[in-house]
Amino acid sequence: MLAAAGLAAIQARQLARPLERLATSAARIGSGDFSTTTMPHTRIPEIDGIGQALQQSANRVDRLLAMERSFTADATHQLRTGIAGILMRFELLSTHRDRNVRRDAEAGLLQTEQLNRTIDELLAAVRDTTLRERGEFVLVELVDQHVAEWQPRFSAVGRTIAVVTASQEPVVGTKGLAGQVLDILVDNALKHGRGAVTLMIEGTSVLVIDQGTGMTDEQAARAFDAPTDPAAAHGRGLPLARRLAEVDGGFVEIVHPRPLRIRYRLASASAATGRLGAAVGEGVRQVPARTPADTLREPSLSASTTTAPPSDT
Asked: Which domain does 94 fall in, by range?
């Protein structure tokens, strides 16, 4: 009886763990974070089937939302560029000698300004839909979740990824958008960087650092410019990351091109509520069961945890 009870308890724990991981991933999707990259594999067909269906649905929604936001940003830019040109023409015509031409030009200016206001109202409505999902959350928890999902990909190519916490404070944002920005920056470091990748949390910011050669000054200056060729396969990640961050009240910037350091800054919960935010804790952490201990003994990484944050260049 005791042996049977012990065996049943072991089997129950083995079944509970993957269900807990699946529930965590499902909760993230439910909160609007559709960037979940991998679901737990349990070798139990029913659970794996649910996980695969959830992942496919999340990936599909993630792609659709990314395309929608990208289209909105690009369409808005094109509209405003065209309207600016029309305004310039009407302004020139408003100084014409002919009174009738001036009158028509002034009417055109009024209509164009009304069109600008309409675009502003439409964009405000879109942003309002996004902002309804915003809330206060702990940045380090979100970073840990995403780094844990990326760790197998780094291990597969013999590289490591770690999290370092210099200081932290609550942030305000949409966890789904913030997760997508993090994924884009980590994916960029995996594809284009080298060596260990470190995500350093400083207050309301995440600094993504890799050990590669980085960018030239010219490349850094154009890093957030969207590709002019619609069919271009590269160059879309960083511009999209910045747009997503800005929609959510944050910002993405290159603070050092060589080695490459990209900062993702989120909105401060303390600033949003008028309260002073206190930095909580200091030290170096690795996400449990992710990376070898010697990851944090890299010379450049050790320096990054003991010196002041780099100045913007």
From this structure: 1-132
